Amino acid sequence: MANLQELHQLGQSTWLNYLRGSFIRSGELAERLREGIQGVTANAQVYERAVAGSSDYDSAIRRAVAEGKPARLIHEHLMADDIQRAADVLHPLFEASGRREGFVSYELDPGAFNDVTAAVAGARHFGHLVDRYNVMVEVPATPVGIAAIRALVADGTSINVTHLFSVGDYERAAAAYMAGLSEYIASHSVWRTTPTAVASFSLSPLDAAVDPRLAALGRADLTGKTAIAAAKLLYERFRQLFDTPEWAKLAAKGALPLRPKWTRVTPHDFQHGEGYYVNNLVGPDTVVTFSPVTLNAFRRDGQAAETLTHGLDEARSHLAAVAALGIDLDAIAAGLQADHLAASDRRFHALVAAVTGKRDQLDSAWRALTMQLGEFAPPVEEGLQAVCRHQIVCRIWAHDHTVWQPQPKEITNRLGWLHIMDGMADKVERLTEFTAGVVAEGYTHALLLGMGGSSLAPELFQKTFGRATRPANKPYPYLELVVVDTTDADAIRAAEAAVDLPRTLLIVSTKSGGTVETLSAFKYFYNRLAEQLGPEAAGRHFVGITDPGSKIVDLGRRYGFRDLFLNDPNIGGRYSVLSYFGLLPAALVGVDVAELLERAAIAAANATPCHCDAIGDNDAARLGAAMGKLALAGRDKVTFITAPALSSFGDWVEQLIAESLGKEGKGVLPVVGEPPAPVESYGPDRLFVHLRLEGDRQQDALVAALADAGQPVITIRLRDVNDLGGQFLLWEMATAVAGHFLGINPFDQPNVEEAKIKARAVVAEYAATGALPEGESHAPEPGVLDEFLHKARPGDYVALQAYVATTPETDAALQALRQAIHLRTGLATTAGYGPRFLHSTGQLHKGDGGNGLFIQFISEAAADVPIPDEAGAPASSMSFDVLKKAQALGDGLALRDAHRRVISFAVGVDAAGAIGELAAKI
């Protein structure tokens, strides 16, 4: 494990791009300094999210409002107070380092840099508020900024030159800096602190801008190298500029050089590791600015070896090759500077809006999450205090596997969801342009071929944000999404009938690239398109979402896919909603992806505090403690009461909880979509969660009655459907915290393979004999079901497993049966379509404590559909109906091997009728 002191020994300073009130007050900043951080940068985006999502600044905002301050002045005073506190923490380092380290760098309102006079005045004003020597004001490397640099340095102000994307920008900033130093030294007394400076060169945005151009020109081999090459040449120029007789005279009077500072060091794609830029740019007289993500990555996998001075010839050759392809790096740098200045301006406006919004929330006493836990409130509070005492939340953010297990296997490479919001924010433009492009070409529908984590989030986005939720009389410049997460032959035919294939985009979505259901659907739909359009045109209708290096990458190249979206491989399927797996489909159906990600980032800001004086504001920690502690107390059925507009969220969160928390003989059962029942019918094994959309009071009376009856109830309020972005992060973190309480790894799925192995054996027998083996099935007779239900015990649950086509009629029949069984037994009930649920609740069914009763329904296809052996060829050795039945048989065998109570009903071609009749007669 690398440490920051090794970088210091090589002459590189280490800063952290993160600052907020709770980070200072809790002692976390001081802890980072002990670990080797030597400076921090404060930015408006972190403040905006902390203001909007946490209570960090609630007291200060209340005081400022009472004093009559406007929002624009309130945010200024919040930042000034934090910068002062942080500067005081860093001041001993500032003095011990000869005033070279220990700085706090801060932004001004970008509007101040419209002219030089305003910029200098703004910096002087804020500098007066802060009143600390060890601070730096950030100044953009624009013409106005360059002129301001000279004036500010001459005035004695230390600066951080920002928005640097080229060597030329650095040269101009260096000249202004040296001119300002000359004026300062000539005109000021020796007792004043000589100003110093760093120049922040942005890495990832440069590659993000250049790489698509290289790929389009057929030079993908050159991607990911431009920023490092430019940085190495910038460093070479730095050494030349600050090794002259003129500079030596300034240095003799205490002047320090304009050190290059590497910033935005998180790679823009997911093919390079998080430490890619850091490891390639280690060298003396430089600063590296870590994000919290890259700091964790460096400490885990970093390489403390000098690399910056090596490979200069290769760097020059690379930049020459880029130029020879007609790519103008100076023009790209100018465009990036303009874009990033505009983004800075938007961040400051968002910060002011966040202060205004928080002021209104405080006035109305609005809270996103409230708990009515009755007798369970004390143990949950004890659990929450244990979380803060043991720094569980901080350790989760630091990717510490010991929160759950002694070994890091399937943990440290599964925590990318913690930070994916910021990584995907840089991909919004690509998603928006892709969507606009396919719509402009005349596409009207999308078929998503995926299972579990690859299908549940896309379905949520279609049902919650799609065409059916929009006014019918307004244009809809997006696609209608149909999800294919089935092997039911009738469902496959229904999906095909729901779209016009020649105007349909098909999305092959699988993390591993080996999901049998997804690949079977791909082969079928590829052949259907090839029949209509020819094989050359068929491939252009497909895109892939997968991990780097998976089989889908080769498949996409072989069949000429329109595009491939390579995801962060450090995210498990059920945690992937805010990655390409969820957000490409979201963009296609018209979700405001940028807003969704921002809501998630605000929720992350709320989920970050881990110290005891702020843990009560951490909704994810509170929710996770409640789930974990109540499960340990026997309240292990988390029952969702969901606003109708949010109903599809239940299917997504069902997989997250069941697959994460159902293993090693333990389990938390998510109960989703259960028909409402009399309050007295619910047993003492429930925890109710009410997802309430602002303005929707339909379920308030039921929830109040449950609380009055002594049932523990958690209410979560959403202002609008975009708050689902925050819910994704909230529930992911809460599930991780609950896993800590249960003592299990919430990121693996040790029992999922069992049903697959059994199914493969069934398929092999079919291939050898031409027939499926006989299963233990029954005719759908009420007496048989009644006898099976007599096996139930208190605390059990009943799971309906429907290997049938999804239709409104089967939905209604399953719901009627769930209600009948609950009223008959008092047990919690769940329902899932097979094989879809195998990728959702299947892990819990075989991994929990064995308190489930499983009722399988297996239908006959009205018309079977062959699965091609290979895409592009007609030969078929198996059909979808055979595959579905093999999966049902395999899962039944796996359940029986795990000593579960199982019964199977053969329901023929009229599944809805057979299930409905059972519901009417038990």
TrEMBL record:
Which positions are tagged coiled coil? none
- Extract the Gene3D superfamilies matched here: Aldolase class I (3.20.20.70), Glucose-6-phosphate isomerase like protein, domain 1 (3.40.50.10490)
Main location (coarse class)? cytoplasm
**Can you say where in the cell this protein is located?**
Cytoplasm
Q: Fetch the SUPFAM superfamilies from UniProt.
A: Aldolase, SIS domain
Q: Which GO molecular function annotation, any one, does this entry have? A: transaldolase activity
Which pathway, per its entry?
A: Carbohydrate degradation; pentose phosphate pathway; D-glyceraldehyde 3-phosphate and beta-D-fructose 6-phosphate from D-ribose 5-phosphate and D-xylulose 5-phosphate (non-oxidative stage): step 2/3; Carbohydrate degradation; glycolysis; D-glyceraldehyde 3-phosphate and glycerone phosphate from D-glucose: step 2/4
Q: What is this protein called?
A: Transaldolase
Give the organism the record lists. Answer: Candidatus Promineifilum breve
Native organism taxonomy = Bacteria, Bacillati, Chloroflexota, Ardenticatenia, Candidatus Promineifilales
What is the primary gene name for this protein?
Answer: tal
